[in-house]
Amino acid sequence: MLLGISQPASAEPGFTTARDTKRLRAEIRRGLRRAEFALHYRPRLDLQTGSVRGAEAKLGWPGRIGGVLPAYSFLSVADGSELINQLGAFALAQACADALLWGGLRVSVGVSARQLMSGPLHEQIAAAIGCSGLPAHCLEVKLSETVLTDVDTETLLALSALRDLGIGVALDEFGTGWASMRLLQQLPLTSLKLARSMVRELPGNREDAAVLAAVVQAGHALGLTVVADGIETQEQLACLTGLGCDEGQGQLFSRKLSAAQVRGFATYHDETCSAVRSTPQTRDERALPH
């Protein structure tokens, strides 16, 4: 479930038996030794101003000899072993090193339940921040909603220890599981990331819009930054902006970018938005320029 991936290993035909899983895990170990894994990024924008706030890291395996696999396939296989901790350590270290070059932008990195509860996540984050020199507030880790639906004292202590490092903690894919507003009150979170399914039918689906408005209001009441994922149209953007959603990401803004491209993308957007804000606009001109 690293980096927001939670699909089962059986979702990829060809890796459904114990023998297949063993073989893929051996490939992952070899890939780690050969530095075959890499990160790409999805920019996250302030929906009210259009400026770039940061980027979300996604782990890929472009160097795999046998061809490209969907990320969920190899990550879900790794999640059943110590490999998820090794992949997680790589993602955190690389993301922090990349974000240091972005001039204060935040990087968001998904982590798994195994990393949180039985792995050295606290030490991995401290090492990634310390070795890269990235300010702690520029790192956010996100956990899937399904990971945090049954929260016990151990989980709360682990999350609180992460917050003590000064990093952000986001609840990912909110709206796909059973997490409640009461749960949000208990967790030491800084951000709430809405699932794509909550955005997909906007603005036409009035029920979805009403639910989303309530979630945004509740998130703000708890002091959380509310982030929308999967924004693909100007109409969705206008609806989310009108509902008060803070940040968003999706195909409307950008394709996936390399670490080097994120800085240029942010500079261009910030300059463009500054120019637009200096020009008088009508009340109806709410779409984000890009």
What does this structure look like?
The chain is α/β, with parallel strands linked by helices. It contains ten helices and eight strands. The protein has helices at residues 18-33, 71-78, 83-99, 113-118, 121-132, 153-164, 181-186, 206-221, 234-242, 259-277; strands at residues 38-46, 52-60, 106-110, 139-144, 168-174, 191-194, 225-228, 247-248. The chain has an eight-stranded mixed barrel with strand order 1-2-3-4-5-6-7-8, surrounded by four helices. The longest helix has 19 residues, at 259-277.
Domain module count: 1
Oligomer description: single chain
Structural class by sheet pairing and helices: alpha/beta
Could you tell me the radius of gyration in angstroms?
19 Å
CATH architecture: Alpha-Beta Barrel
- Count of helical regions: 10
- The residue ranges in which pLDDT falls below 50 over 5 or more consecutive positions are 4-15, 280-290
Please give the largest β-sheet.
8 strands, mixed, barrel
Mean pLDDT: 85
By DSSP, the count of extended strands is 8
Give the helix proportion (percent range): 40-55%
- Mass-distribution shape: globular
- The top-level CATH class is Alpha Beta
